[in-house]
Design goal:
The structure is a single chain. Among the domains are: about 280 residues, Methanol Dehydrogenase, Chain A (8 Propeller); about 90 residues, Orthogonal Bundle (Cytochrome Bc1 Complex, Chain D, domain 2), CATH 1.10.760. Helix content is about 10%, strand content about 30%. The chain contains eight helices and 39 strands. The protein is globular. The chain starts with a strand and ends with a helix.
Length: about 725
Amino acid sequence: MFLLFAACGRESPPSAPATAEPAPAASDTLVGSVTLSRLQNADAEPGQWLALGRNFEGQRFSPLQQINADNVAELGFAWEYEAKSRRGRVEHGQESTPIMVDGVLYASGPWGSAFAVDARTGEEVWRFDPDVDGSYNRRACCDVVNRGLAVWEGRVYVGTLDGHLVALNAATGNKLWKADTLEDRDTRFYTITSPPQVAKDVVVIGNSGGEFGVRGYVTAYDRVTGEQRWRFYIVPRDPAEGPPENAAVELALETWGPDTDWSSGLGGTAWGEMNYDPDLNLLYVGTGNSTPYSGWYRDPSGKDNLFLVSILAINPDDGSLVWHFQQVPWEIWDYTATANMILADLEIDGEKRKVIMQAPKNGFYYVLDRANGEFISAAPFAYVNWAIGLDENGRPRVNPKAVYKDNPSLVFPTFEGAHNWHPMAFSPQTGLAYFPSRAEGMVLSNEDEYEWTQGTMNVGSGVVFGPDYIDAMMQEDQDRHAATIAANPDEPDASLREYLTAWDPVTQSARWRVLLDGNYSGGGVLATAGQLVVEGTATGHLVVYHAETGDKLKKIELGTGIMAAPISYELDGEQYIAVVAGGAAWLNRAAARYRYENYGRILAFKLGGGATPLPPVRKPQRTPPPPEDVELVTEVVEQGEKLFHTHCFGCHSGRGEDLLSAYPDVRRLTAETHLIFNDIVLGDALSSAGMASFADLISAEDADTIHMFLISDQRALYEEELAEN
């Protein structure tokens, strides 16, 4: 499962240098002046937050303790900054962790926007809005989000949704250089939602798009000039297109069978956070799931399929692979190793070990030696049935019942993961890791046929059903699952439970768990030396717990859902806790967006602060009268519903007040919109706002058929509301 690998030589030839504007002036280097020395000695500046995880270990632990378990009840509002989207009326999710350097707070937003604000007041210093074609919204599987930026030596690095890495002047926000990171831009749906990572002399960026059929890779660029230094491909290419680019790809190719379907690109995108250990000079990259999910269509040989769902250690000097550890060979469940990784020094069996830790989707908490990738330990932190266990090398023993090729399978955890991307924190003070976790299963069944199709979600044969579809024959798994959550017997619904989990990585056991409110609720986590654990929720609250016991100490209503992780910093003798807030597009009946308008905000809190201002109350939507002069044919409406679910449901899943989505409810179109429906769906009438044309996938007849379904649904909604009133 792990391999110590010799230097592989250079990856693909570097691209031409990106056109660079003048570098920051000497005076500007005082702004955003993060250096390797400062980051390595982050504890000497406890008031700063110099990187996404504060220190190079990525622990998201603040040594500050002015705000502590004894006085956190006095925590109140200090300031806010409205980070509203400037693209149409859709408000997308906010997923970035801020960075605070010398009094300036930096954060990224949807589409790859970036903000710099005064960390004392929230006053805007500058704002960067990338010139991204709105049609790229269609290329993003999971909203046009961005999970963070990097600040280094007077520069701010951010990835844009359309696949560019941009360097900005940290003092002014002016663009210094812009590099195009994408291959096959016209034929493959690549995007960037991940944060860049500085590693020595390069800045490295990954990409997203696995579900759309791409070949994952990470690319390193010169920090100063933007010139491409190297590219590391996570999965091999079709041998008919040429030999492996280097020794790492050659190694990976050996783990793919002769009947591999190369058309889909195979996946393996790196869309999460990376880490860099300057002492070992190793860059750590977590890789994603397969395309398609179903291995029998992707590679019927059943081989491991490297480097899917793996942690990679790469030499940033030349892009060579040093070691790798694969968590899920021949991945078929959309499990990824893209959750944030944490570096720590732990005493295990009486020996001090330099470890890397991760709590990925598949439900096992992994502890590896970060110098050589050796497997140290792993244990399930949620109910797991896809694997019976792990062998002494960390290789899973797959449960045959979880393979859904011939029969539907009830699989735990769900494709959303026992823990997804929401950042985990680690406290050296308590020795515990803190992260949101989920106990939920899914039913997967095989499709009769699969063929990769450009421009559509290519999950393959994994069709996901909700709990209502769970067959009684699978009751044994349900009973075992229920036993794992028996600690909360008062909760009636056993189909989905979410927790804030405090995990001991040495004993591989939970110290405590706290049940969260609402589905898809738990955001990223901050731990502090004040014995605090801070987490935001989709219900629109910032909640503070005792780090040792899990006791709830403070709950602040923001009125805005939170997915991102909070940070803490200190200025002028005052400690602040700050968080980027903005709800996701996903459906959650307990979400704040059901009560309040949803838009991006950065909020900060301090002791003695005031009441938090709430967003405007969301006004109930009313369904406009549907067209009356349209004759609906049952067969056409049914076909339209199928086409809608194939091409439109990913964004426009909301229907009425019960299922609120961040995207427009297309069952409530105005009379004017009905008149230009085909101009929107097949043309570019709303492309600037993110609604791309689908003329490459559907015909005019298909568009009319979808329209008939929407009119039918709108009539039903309209009649329901009339009956209620």
